[in-house]
Amino acid sequence: MFLKGKSAIVTGSTSGIGLAIAKALAAEGASVMINGFGDAGAIEAERAALEAASGAKALYDGADMSKPDAIYAMVDRCHAELGGPDIIVNNAGIQHVSAIEDFPVEKWDAVIAINLSSAWHMMRAAVPHMKAAKWGRIINTASAHSLVASPNKSAYVAAKHGVAGLTKTIALETATHGVTVNCISPGYVWTPLVENQIPDTMKARGLTREQVMNDVLLAAQPTKKFVLPEQVAALAVFLCREEASAITGANYSMDGGWTAA
């Protein structure tokens, strides 16, 4: 348990990739603060399970990642109750799909706020604590869309390209302080969010489940396999290790070959 005594905040971690990362960090002994929306009972069950796995404290904070004041308050709370934060995982994200001429302005603002600006605010709040401790790990969940584009996803693609650039910038600013900043860029990850899209797509396009998975969702992934949340989490944990201390400013593709084409 090499993260015993360390604290982590994982945003957007009540399900999917974020929850998998929180579980992996807890399994290595970190005290973890999870964040996101969902059923209160289910969130409490996950929080308790994290505490049992880590042998350390686990907290839930429902900060709205579109609100900077809530972000700063969450980091302050982590510092007061768990210490640090030593590890920040900027994972919160939303999506909206529409051609630009029909794209609602408020949806653009929301995607940029939650997918990009929240990461900037989290780092702005956490970096002083990490510099003081002379140790820190920041991991940003980007996307294959940090490297390539798809039509009708202007806000998401812009935000994820922004996350990749932000990662490089803060990596340079913290390079001499024992702090590393990296991002992971998954392709389609098998999460409840993706699974729940399948029936609607089957109905809308008159396709079978297998056709939706292989010809729509996995069309760009040469392996024709979804990335698993646990695979993303394993890479995030590795980036926290001492062996990864020379890796900073990197963008790790985990997309089944999508961006190799």
From TrEMBL:
List, alphabetically, the SUPFAM superfamilies matched: NAD(P)-binding Rossmann-fold domains (SSF51735)
For the keyword Oxidoreductase, the answer is yes
- Which PROSITE patterns does its entry note? ADH_SHORT
The EC number of this protein is: 1.1.1.30
Similarity annotation: Belongs to the short-chain dehydrogenases/reductases (SDR) family.
Q: Name one GO molecular function term.
A: 3-hydroxybutyrate dehydrogenase activity
Which protein, by its recorded name, is this? 3-hydroxybutyrate dehydrogenase
Q: Which domain of life is it from?
A: Bacteria
Q: Which keywords has UniProt assigned to this entry?
A: Oxidoreductase
Which Gene Ontology BP annotations are present? monocarboxylic acid metabolic process
